[in-house]
């Protein structure tokens, strides 16, 4: 099955778009912490124009569903919904942390990855992933938001994350808490991955398509992990 998939992500400081058609991948990626709304649509237009295709010719539109910045996740899903609805194509939500695991594999051939994003408020978003033989990824530690000092205890209770194996670490959570990795009693290696990129969402979206895990635009939803806190921080909310 050859899929034509567009992926967009604005969940973190990084803003990225990628288009997969056959064996060709076209990528636009730029660090733009406060310019996502300005950058993302021109990026989409650019990759479509380079490929010579329209949105209606695509099989799906993948989007970074989070976790990440509350505002960034909302921007990404809102723009993706508008594009998918207008073109009448299905959507696929992709974990930003699973995308970082795939990026670690793309860069370093890492097959076991611990992803952590700095969630502010003395917390991290965390998830553990293991690559399968078919190129998809299995979640071996459920995605969660937690204080970094609680991570070692959680991992010690997870038999799937063994100290006998080497684990690559990815995401902004590790440099935000420089002593965190050494507290885990695991063999860890640096992956060089800090932010998710849409290019790495394409392979995950491909496997999701094969499993039929698509939704109509009006049913696409984000994953905040800490949505109740973010909601309370909005003006006028208790």
UniProtKB/TrEMBL annotation:
InterPro entries: ATPase_NBD, Gcp-like_dom, T6A_TsaB. Belongs to the KAE1 / TsaD family. TsaB subfamily. This is tRNA threonylcarbamoyladenosine biosynthesis protein TsaB. NCBIfam families: T6A_YeaZ (TIGR03725). It comes from Enterovibrio norvegicus. The keyword Transferase applies. Keywords: Acyltransferase, Transferase. One of its GO terms (molecular function) is tRNA N(6)-L-threonylcarbamoyladenine synthase activity. Residues 30-232 form the Gcp-like domain.
